Amino acid sequence: MSNKITIIGAGQVGSTIAFALTLKQLASEIVLIDIAKERAMGEAMDIRQGTPFIGPVYIHEGDYVDAKDSDIVVLTSGVARKPGQSRLDLTQTNVNITKSIIPEITKAAPNALYVIVANPVDILTYQFVKTSGIPENRIFGTGTMLDTARFRARIAETYKVAQENVHGYVFGEHGDSSFVPWSLANIGSIPVEKYADSLKGVAAPTFNKDDVEDYIRKSGGIIIAAKKCTNYAIGVTTATLCEALNYKTNSVLTISTIMNGEYGISDVCLSTPTIIGGDGIQGHAVAPITDSELESLRHSADCLKDVIKQIQF
């Protein structure tokens, strides 16, 4: 496979993404760029020394010029969220950091697909769309892919079924206004709300939708309080998104993209099912949701728009 991926930011998230990409053998070359050059060198060297047991991946540190001819650029740079701090509290600081990165990386890799991971991911994705000059179909954030994984993992834990049998999504902001459109959620094609009643010879667990959504929203904060960062799940999430970009066969993922009238929402980036593949965004799958779910989605959009109004891009 001839595929070059550049990762901007070699902290816990960036380096874990690099490791996940290497394990999945999704690139022939991975470039780590960080203002802390020694950190980038050390992370790249550590991963590179394990490649004899994985596959022929050349991972190394570099500068923006080394991103030339990248197929994918992953942006993780930013100030990390602190315990008790919301993602949106980080906004202006990380917008300023991204502002300094955009002209450098787009000059070096004007034809790349851009994956935004740094938080607040929806705001930074919007910033990239509006200010980078890169076509909007080639810019997207990881959005609620991670929230969706947390949702599926939680339902699987509750009902003691394989995660792959749980289907459903988290829509909206990657943050406090996210929500689960329960009308789309199922376990083995059985609606989640009816699954307990379908069980024969198996005790049904206690289940509360509000508890599940609360768990999804608070998971990041719980992990950060316990270990000072989140990196493994977002590492796998980002690698999975990059994997989808390696193929012409399109995938449907809840990634953060600019909305252009879908669900009556425009001029904001948030997550709904998006059709994506080797050429970037192909379009959106406008899933049929209930009136109350549509109201929740529009509320999430309004929350993000309120933040956008207060930010200097």
Please describe what this structure looks like:
By secondary structure, the protein is an alpha/beta fold. The protein is 41% helix and 19% strand. The chain is built from 9 helices and 12 strands. The chain has helices at 12-23, 37-48, 91-108, 121-131, 145-159, 192-198, 209-227, 232-245, 291-309, and strands spanning 4-8, 29-33, 58-61, 72-75, 113-116, 139-141, 166-167, 186-187, 190-191, 251-260, 266-277, 280-284. The strands form 3 sheets. A 6-stranded parallel sheet has the order 3-2-1-4-5-6, with helices on both faces. Strands 7-8-9 form a 3-stranded antiparallel sheet. A hairpin with a 2-residue loop joins β8 (186-187) and β9. α1 runs parallel beside α2 (37-48). The longest helix has 19 residues, at 209-227. The radius of gyration is 19 Å and the shape is globular. The relative contact order is 0.14.
Query: How are the strands of the largest sheet arranged?
Result: 3-2-1-4-5-6
Biggest beta-sheet profile = 6 strands, parallel
What overall form do the CA principal axes indicate?
globular
Helix content bin: 40-55%
Strand runs, count: 12
**Average of per-residue pLDDT values:** 93
Give helix and strand order, one letter per element, not per position. EHEHEEHEHEHEEEHHHEEEH
Total DSSP helices: 9
Q: Helices and strands: which structural class?
A: alpha/beta
Beta-strand percentage? 15-25%
What's this model, at a glance?
By secondary structure, the chain is of the alpha/beta class. The protein is built from nine helices and twelve strands. The strands form three sheets. The chain has a six-stranded parallel β-sheet with strand order 3-2-1-4-5-6, with helices on both faces.
